Known about the structure:
Chain A is an alpha/beta fold.
Amino acid sequence: xxxxxxxRHITSLRNGDPMIISPGLANYAIAEADEPLTIYNMDMPxxxxxxxxMALGWSTRRVISIEGDGSLLxxxxxxxxxxxYQPKNxxxxxFDNGAYLTTGSGKAPTATVFxxxxxxxxxxxxxxxxxxxxxxxxxxxxxxxxxxEPGPWLVVxxxxxxDRPTERRPHSLPMYVYEAGLIFHRAVLQExxxxx
Amino acid sequence: xxxxxxxxxxxSVANTGKAGVRYRQKALESFYEGFRAAGIDFAxxxxxxxxxxxxxxxxxxxxxxxxxxxxxxxxxxxxxxAFLVGKRPVALMExxxxxxxxxxxxxxxxxxxxxxxxIGHNSTLGERYDYHGATRLVAEPVLRALDIPHHVxxxxxxxxxxIVEAQATIEGQRLPFGVLVxxxxxxxxxxxx
Lengths: 196, 193
C-alpha cells in the first residue's frame, strides 16, 4: 500500500480540519492542499500530544494527527492520556512502514518489524476505535469510518517503503516552521470569531 | 468542573500532601485567582508533591478545564495545542519536567506557540532532599539555555500579580514563561524541616 494514496483519501475528507504532521514524507503529500490549519514537521514525538491539546480545546472541530511508526513509538504514553479523556474529535493515522525511512540509508527498522503492534498498544491503553489496515480498500474504509463515527480513532496503515525519494527533496512546504504558529493561530481566531 | 475531569477532589485542599506538611491555603487561592484573572482556561499537569494543592484546588473550583498527562513534555505539547486553538493554557509540573520538555519548549519558541509553566522546585531555596538533586539542576538551566523568561517566587503575596503579568508577557511576546515555586511559598514548613 502506498502512503500517498491513503493520504489523498484523508485530505479529500479533511474539509480544512486542524492537522499536525510528524516528521517525514507525509508532509509533502499533504502540503499539496495548502490548508492554513496545518502544522508541518512537528518534532518527534509531539504531533499527537499537540493534536490532543487542540482536540480538548476545540471540541466542536475534528483534529487530525498524522504519525509515523517511529514517532508514535517515541512517545506512546500519550495513548493512555487520550484513553483517559476519550476526545470524540481526535483522529490519529499512523503510517507504519517498519523503518526510520527518512534517516540516512532508511534501512534502520522500527520495533514494528520485530512484533510491536501499534494498534494493540492503543487498545491496551484503553482506545476502542482502532484498526490496522494492509491494503488501500481497507484503509479507505477505516479512514471514512474515522471521519464519520465518534472517536478517538487510531488507524494504523501498513505501507511500503517505496516512496523514499532517491534525490534530496526541495523545501517546498507552504510555510516555514517559524511562521506556523502565527498562521495557524490567526486562522483559528478568525474562524472562531466568525462563528460567534 | 471540566466534563473530562474524573479525578476525585478533597474537601480541604490545605490538608492534602505528605504527612506533616500543610499547604498555605492563601497561596493556593492566589494561584487560582491569578489564573482566573489572567484568563487561563486550560490547564494540564503531571501530579507532583509541590503543586498538588494547586492542581486539586483547580479541579475543585472548576472554571478552568484541567487535564492530567502522562509525561511533562506531553503536557507542554498539549498546552501548546490548546494555545493554537485559542485557549490560554498553563502547564504545571515538577522542575524535572522542564528537563524533559526542552525540545518541545524550543519548538514552541521557534513556531511562536507559548504556554505558561508553573514549576515546582528551583535551584537555590529549600531543596532539602537528595532525591531532588537532579530536579534542581535541570529546571532553571534549561529555561536560561532557551532564553525563556522566568521568575522565582519568594513572597506568597506576589503570586497573583506574577501570574497576571507573566500572561501579559506570554501574549505580548509570544514566548513561554516559567514561574518557579520554592517550597516555602506554597507550604507551611518549619525551620527544622
